[in-house]
Write a structure and sequence with these properties.
This protein is of the alpha/beta class and 162 residues long. The chain is built from 5 helices and 5 strands; from the N terminus they run E-H-E-H-E-H-E-H-E-H. It has a 5-stranded parallel sheet. The longest helix is centred in the last third of the chain and has 20 residues.
């Protein structure tokens, strides 16, 4: 099952990109063992529209054009419910076992996702109640995807007393 990360904006070279790539590469390697991955990143530019609502519509439409149509869409949304690391691993495992071809995690722009994209998403996921810069949200997501594959493969990276 392929994993896509659709994001508004681009990561610049430097510490954020380096850390993101570290976890993305670890995810790709560990994910092979559990038939999840690789991670493909699809970036779209920030909209230059004057109104917030138009920017969110433009960015959402651009994101959806970059993602395969058969993907299960998971919009990152601060108002959504959060998942534990084990619950995220369980969701990935369930989707894989039920034959999903791809999942797409969608990271919005500075204004978040518009109503159109949120209505199209199959699921919504919060990384927490705090708001993160887009680059940091990508890093956290990549680390959690890696952590999920370590949970599924029995790797000792994730320790929660079990």
């Amino acid at each position: 099952m392929r994993i896509y990360l659709g994001a508004v904006g681009t990561l610049k070279d430097g510490a954020e990109r380096s850390l993101f790539e570290r976890y993305a590469n670890r995810f790709d390697q560990c994910g092979q063992q559990v038939r999840i991955g690789p991670l493909t990143v699809a970036e779209v530019p920030e909209s230059r529209a004057r109104s917030v609502s138009q920017r969110m519509r433009d960015e959402g439409a651009a994101l959806l054009k970059k993602i395969p149509t058969e993907s299960i869409l998971i919009a990152l949304d601060e108002k959504a419910a959060g998942f534990s690391s084990r619950a995220l691993a369980g969701m990935l495992e369930k989707d894989r076992d039920e034959g999903a071809r791809s999942l797409a995690f969608l990271v919005g722009g500075a204004d978040g996702h518009g109503d159109d994209l949120l209505a199209t998403a199959h699921r919504k996921l919060s990384l927490g109640q705090m708001t993160y810069p887009h680059g940091l949200a990508r890093i956290i997501l990549a680390e959690q995807l890696y952590r999920a594959t370590t949970i599924l493969s029995g790797h000792p990276y994730h320790r929660d007393g079990r």
